[in-house]
Amino acid sequence: MSSLALHGLILAGGSSTRMHRDKAALKYQGRSQLDRAFELASRHAAKVFVSVRADQTLDPTRAQRPMIVDSVAGEGPIVGIRSALAAHPRVAWLVLACDLPFLSDAAIEYLVRERNSAGSAAGFATAYKSAHDGLPEPLCAIWEPAAAEALADYQAGGGHCPRKFLIRHGARLLEPQDTRALDNVNTPEEYTQALATLDRVPLMQLKIQYYALMREQAGRSEETLETSASTPAGLYEELVARYGFTLSREQLKVAVNSEFSDWSRPLKLGDAVVFIPPVAGG
Amino acid sequence: MHFRFTQTAIDTESARRELQTLSAGGYVSFEGWVRDLNEGQEVTRLEYEAFQELAVKEGNRIVAEALRRFPIKQALCVHRVGSLELGEMAVWVGVSSAHRSEAFDACRFIIDEVKHRVPIWKKEHYRSGDSGWVNCERCAAAPQHSHAHHRQDRLAVSNPKEPV
Asked: In chain A, at which end, N or C, are there fewer CB atoms within 10 A of the end residue's CB?
């Protein structure tokens, strides 16, 4: 058995570029993913911290938790991992990205058990193999203090990818027991699908038509799509994330089945929705 | 039907004939034309598009409202969609009534309401090569400000000493 204590580190410093909003704040089952990941890690590690960039320390999603602020130069998860290893150099770190809503206690228990049974043979890290490509998953892994120096050298040599680091330096790799557990959620479409699974939010097919500026911004005049939104207001929020519409909801009207509608009207399967930008007839 | 769209030039003669009735003593019409200048930009042509299903419903409701509010005989609005050159007619409103005063009032009411309520959009193409959706692009440039910036524009003009 390894004698090293285990701490948890939730990586929440990413820019969520493809999601168009903070992935840590996305809610599943009524709680933010940051809270869910934090609570999951807390059931398996003695202390848990949120990894943040220096400019995120006042962010309300993160500020109520113990934090480890990036203390080494550079960008990306490698900086968070190195900062944790530097802040508490005598513990191992259960590192979890905060875009893994399907992670379960079973998946973490198995990781911790395998790592403990390896003892001093745990090397730099114990990680799952990706169910998709068999490569190590560095952001659902236990990192050992022994990795600190090699990580610093790797970064000094221009490296920045923790997965490539583990490929190069070797990690104890585990077959995932549940292939879905490590599916990450990077886009609004993936979030919609994840909600359908986790919250059993029924997906509903709707027909959307786009006009004028919104037609140009969406790059299409109509589509049929599956959504978890239950009102036009929720649907517009989803579509803003998808297409980056520049008009705010306050500037629009909405029509359902070719009649003006409230933003809070419950949508039904097959409804046809049209968002109406400021009009300019005459 | 009191409101319709056309893809081709508006036939004002046949539209006018639809309003004729022996009880009408007068007829007023309004024509909206494509102008070469808007907000300081030289316009070369316009594109109109409409959410026709709802636009026809809303246009008909507007003309029906005019027929209830004003003692007029007949009213009709025809709107063009598609690409229009300078000088072409984009919209036509006609009203017939026993006396001239209510025909003027109803005609004005209809064109004003159509501009505000009917889901029709126009894209202006400018001599500079730029183009823009009227009423959308400036709002979109300041999405969080809703329409408050229009008021700020006026304040800036009325108080020239205010630093910009």
From this structure: N
Give the chain A residue nearest B51 (alpha carbons). A211
pLDDT digits (tens, 9 = 90+) for A79-115: 999 999 999 999 999 999 998 999 999 999 999 999 9
Q: Dihedral of CA B2/B5/B11/B12: which sign?
A: positive
Question: What predicted TM-score, i.e. pTM, was given to this entire model?
Answer: 0.63
- Tell me A183's DSSP state: -
Residue A181 lies in a domain: no
Please check whether residues A166 and A33 belong to one and the same domain.
yes
Q: Is B117 on the interface with A (CB under 8 A)?
A: yes
* Whole-angstrom distance, CA of residue A215 vs CA of residue A247: 12
* Tens digits of residue pLDDT in A209-220: 999 999 999 999
Q: Helix H segments across chain A?
A: 33-42, 60-63, 77-87, 105-118, 147-156, 162-169, 188-198, 212-218, 232-243
- The nearest CA of chain B is from the CA of A276 a distance in Å of 7
- Shared-domain flag, residues A207 and A247: yes
What residue numbers bound the domain in which A246 lies? 202-276
How, if at all, do strands A259-261 and A253-256 pair? antiparallel
